[in-house]
Methyltransferase domain-containing protein (Persephonella atlantica), 205 residues
Amino acid sequence: MYQIINTEVEKYLKSLPDIEDPVMRKMEEYAAKNDFPIIGREGGKLLYLITKIKNPSLVVEMGSGFGYSGYFFAKALKKGKVVLIDYLDRNINLAKDFFKEGNLLDKAQFRVGDAVQIGQEYKNIDILFLDLEKVRYLEAIQILEKNLSEDGIIIADNVLYQGKVVFEKEDRKAKVLDSFNRYMFENYFSVILPIRDGILLGVKK
Ligand SMILES: C[S@@+](CC[C@H](N)C(=O)[O-])C[C@H]1O[C@@H](n2cnc3c(N)ncnc32)[C@H](O)[C@@H]1O
């Protein structure tokens, strides 16, 4: 794993005062205990901010895990819903439990199955969040882009892939992510924020 942000800067960022939400904290503890990769507090707060600014009617998450990223979307939603999709029943059931505890069940829809397949059922997606298998990012956007609303936003996590897109260009996943990033920069107005593992934001040109 390569260091994307200077360690001291990262420490400073983590030391700033933060929101307290017992369910969020519980989810972070679950992730740490089970070594489950989540977008993390800074990434989650970015999802929250974008949702507040955008005021979307429909958010679709591809690869929801046990609901941590979805929780930030749901918490920020004023209207509409977030669709959480994951392959694993176990993850989605856990997400339902956490959402229930956070009183957010009415903001969410839970789906089990392949996110690329299920995602296609939704039209006019205002925020499409990609956090599924990295090798499927390019396929996912190419299939789902027609389902985005006019000013839809794409958010993709892990696009720097622990720095491997820069330092291990021959790595199979790094290659696919590099192709995805290039596609997003050519066809969309995109930026990559070096938060944690790299988060890409894109809108139609
Ligand atoms: C990195 S974890 C998701 C973390 C979550 N987004 C968060 O930040 O809290 C990736 C998840 O995607 C799921 N997944 C991977 N490929 C998928 C696919 N094609 N369809 C549905 N789920 C998928 C895995 O089961 C795993 O739970």
Q: What stands out?
A: The chain has one domain: 36-204. The pocket of S-adenosylmethionine is lined by residues 37-39, 63-65, 68-69, 85-88, 91, 114-116, 131-133, 136 (CB under 6 Å). The first helix runs from residue 7 to 15. The chain has a mean pLDDT of 96.
